[in-house]
């Protein structure tokens, strides 16, 4: 059963597949309401274009829908906006069934295509401004990379004012009624999807929104979840708001934020954290604050990390390791843009004191700038050592404010 074939416009139809039972997507996302793999078919007076395919296991539904709308020999173009397997799973089979069809992908997708299909296949590259014609339908391509893979692109169907946005504006939300005005309330899924998929790529979201702005958009056709036809500008506005600089809502123009995250068993790492924060806060233009990881929820960690220009993490060493909340904090970074943030680590220890070094290494992999060595103090910090902590905080803050330093290699 493939259900009804939904029409998005004149001769534009949904031919994707629904996956109501999926509960985890891409390992990192919970999908309480399932999801869908959206693909679309555009028929013009001079042939057919297929927009994306579906996850391989759902190929049957895709092909059944497609066969209700066209013959394979009518397909002139296959457009893949994004090559992740949930959208390219039926590509190989489709190319075999429609060998005359021209495959269109972005330039960055070329290597991925080879890696996915393990064979050479002919394709055409689409950059911003390239158009294809189906007679009375014209499709224009837009380069919108890193949303959320390097290969991603979008396209715009002029005659119907439809934006095919790839994963942008998607939701993991299964509802066969398909259109945003007919499905249940998916607003939580729309935001959750943005936060987990698009948030690390805010600058690219803003670039894509700038490109979309030139078009009158009557309907947004994303690769997952509801098709957005009720005032699409509302959804664009949400993305605009969410992709602003994390500090845009704060009245701190010209200032920077430094956050000290710590955990402490016997108040020694706490004492270090206090002095580091004081030292950092004394630097002109820097707002420094400290946060006890013992009672910070993950969402708060993500929000605080996002707005911080500098992040200093402190942990005691317990059984040769940093404490779990410190690792949990750093595990939030893949949800964020990390490049350019200044980082540093510290901690009090009893025996071996590896924790600050281990956290330092991890932050290096996460692309923090780490201009100072980890600060380690054995057990209770002396007054002299507390002065070192203050100087440490000051140094990190000054560097975050723009002081030039030689980075350690
Ligand atoms: Fe929906 Fe990034 O694949």
From TrEMBL:
Stated name of the protein: FprA family A-type flavoprotein
Record domain Flavodoxin-like: where: 258-397
Family assignment from sequence similarity: In the N-terminal section; belongs to the zinc metallo-hydrolase group 3 family.
Xref: CDD domains: flavodiiron_proteins_MBL-fold
Domain of life: Bacteria
Pfam families in UniProt: Flavodoxin_1, ODP
PROSITE patterns recorded: FLAVODOXIN_LIKE
SMART domains: Lactamase_B
């Amino acid at each position: 059963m493939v259900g009804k074939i939904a029409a998005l416009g004149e001769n534009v139809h949904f031919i994707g597949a629904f996956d109501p039972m999926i509960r985890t997507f891409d390992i990192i996302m919970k999908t309480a309401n399932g999801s869908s793999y959206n693909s679309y078919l555009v028929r013009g007076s001079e042939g057919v274009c297929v927009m994306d395919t579906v996850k391989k296991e759902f190929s049957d539904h895709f092909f059944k829908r497609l066969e209700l709308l066209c013959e394979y020999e009518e397909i002139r173009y296959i457009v893949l906006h994004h090559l992740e397997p949930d959208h390219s799973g039926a590509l190989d089979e489709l190319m075999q069934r429609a060998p005359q069809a021209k495959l269109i992908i972005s330039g960055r997708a070329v290597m991925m295509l080879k890696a996915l299909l393990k064979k050479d296949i002919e394709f055409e590259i689409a950059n911003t401004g390239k158009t294809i014609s189906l007679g009375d339908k014209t499709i224009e391509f837009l380069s919108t990379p890193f949303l959320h893979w390097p290969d991603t692109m979008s396209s715009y169907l002029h005659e119907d004012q439809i934006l095919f946005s790839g994963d942008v504006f998607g939701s993991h939300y299964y509802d066969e009624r398909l259109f945003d005005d007919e499905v249940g309330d998916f607003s939580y899924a729309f935001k959750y999807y943005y936060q987990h998929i698009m948030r690390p790529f805010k600058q690219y979201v803003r670039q894509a929104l700038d490109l979309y702005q030139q078009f009158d958009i009557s309907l947004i056709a994303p690769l997952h979840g509801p098709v957005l036809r009720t005032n699409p500008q509302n959804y664009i506005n949400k993305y605009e708001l969410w992709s602003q600089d994390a500090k845009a809502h704060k009245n701190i123009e010209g200032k920077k934020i430094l956050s000290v995250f710590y955990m402490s068993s016997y108040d020694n790492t706490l004492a270090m954290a206090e002095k580091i924060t004081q030292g950092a806060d004394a630097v002109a233009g820097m707002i420094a604050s400290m946060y006890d990881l013992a009672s910070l929820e993950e969402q708060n960690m993500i929000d605080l990390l996002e707005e911080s220009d500098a992040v200093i993490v402190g942990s005691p060493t317990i059984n040769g390791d940093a404490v779990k909340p410190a690792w949990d904090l750093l595990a939030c970074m893949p949800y964020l843009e990390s490049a350019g943030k200044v980082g540093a680590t510290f901690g009090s220890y009893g025996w071996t004191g590896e924790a600050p070094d281990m956290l330092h290494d991890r932050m290096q992999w996460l692309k923090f700038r780490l201009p100072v060595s980890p600060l380690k103090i054995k057990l209770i910090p002396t007054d002299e050592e507390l002065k070192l902590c203050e100087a440490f905080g000051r140094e990190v803050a000054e560097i975050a404010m723009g002081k030039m330093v030689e980075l350690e290699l």
